[in-house]
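W.,

You were right to be curious about this one. When I first looked at the sequence I had no strong expectations either way, so I just let the prediction run and decided to look at it fresh. Below is the sequence, 132 residues in total, followed by the output.
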Amino acid sequence: MVNSNQDLQYFVGKLCTVFTAPMNRNFQAESPNTYPEAVYKYFMGVVESIDQTGLLLTQATNGLKTYFFINNIVAIAEEEVLDPNNPEHAEIIEKFTPRSEPQPTVQIPDGPFVDPDALAALSKQLKENLKS
């Protein structure tokens, strides 16, 4: 058990993830194409202040504020901040940075007839490009 509010002051000014009791939002169902991005937005950021009533967080991705009532906080985890100029950190960043794969191009042959397989491939490519 936390002895005092002083113990929690350790987290002020640090990049943290706040773990909460379950809530009535399903971020994965709301935005399946961008999940878990919303979780990072709402629950990871710099702790601005913390007291007996709650914790004020500045979201890491957009600078917006989130307030968590203290009775709903389960845990606070300090996050490691990586410096891309540090070679060891750059290696870790590179490992976890998603790569966009080149999209194959579909060639539609010239002529009076339409190839249904080529149209299906073109349709699939368009859908994939629109998701990005």
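Here's what jumped out at me. The mean pLDDT is 83. And, maybe more interesting for your project: Residues 116-131 form the longest helix (16 residues).

Coffee later to discuss?

I.
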